[in-house]
Amino acid sequence: MPHATPHADVATADLDAVLRGGPFHVALRAAIAARGLPLQRVQHHLSRHGVKVGVTSLSYWQQGARRPQRPESLRAVRALEEILQLPEESLIRLLADPGGSAERSANPRPGGPSYRSLVEASGVVERLLADFGVPRDSGLHILGEHERVRIGARRELAGRESHLIVRAHLDGVDRFVAVHHGDPGAAPARMTVHALENCRAGRVRRHHDSGVLAVELLFDTRLRAGDTYLFRYAVEDGTAGISREYVHRTGTPGGQYALQVGFDAGAMPVRCHRFTQHTAAAPRGGRQSLPLSGRHRSVHLVEPRVRSGYVGIAWDWA
Predict the structure, then answer these.
(1) Cβ count near 68 (within 10 Å)
(2) Domains, the chain
């Protein structure tokens, strides 16, 4: 009877199951095998997409010896999804969870890039904003933002509320496009948006594979350069599984940012910490333990003057 090698069943594995459960290198290897493409052909297809990746790097990726992290590598992963005829973000999602869903449930991974930041690096947010016709310069500068995130009884991201103070630096600005990132497995179709104060909801765009929702918030007036404006909105989510962190991205530095995460009385974490990240591909830093208020069941951070990049709060469950 022939002896099977450890990876002999990869090519015949249920590709959908591997894409759901990971890990990344096994899913990539299975997808390449399912299409019957040698790595040289994969490299050729990538070059036609304007992405340069060596055969050695591709080999390391599918062996698990290395993981795509740089922005160019993340663009390659998104191109691979198209080349290998995979659902959008199916491989990007696994990069945020190197051990697959089973490992994610038992042993949350500290210190790596978040699913949210990887989605942004893959270009999903930019494509949604382009669909709104939003220029690179929206004409608004965020002076301050306070986000309140709710974690529900199932340890899920139940929703969030944002209160923003903006100043126009162009005449005629009358809207703001807000982006909500669900956790892996989120269903944007079941999310709802509430325009709470000084705005109303306009067009909504959803990217189902990555769990991203973008909404156009229309102001009650057209701003002139120098005018300030306050508005408030909320997103009801609760469509994904266990949440372990919340990440905020700042494109333009200078404003104040506060993040408060509140937990259900029956779902309190054992510890919380703050972190920062310069880019989606950069290692995390700025780790600092945060006190958890038992009385108010919440934790918070305040950035008096934000820098470009990412800041967030992560928590560990018992």
Answers:
(1) 25
(2) 15-107 (1.10.260), 136-316 (2.60.40.3140)
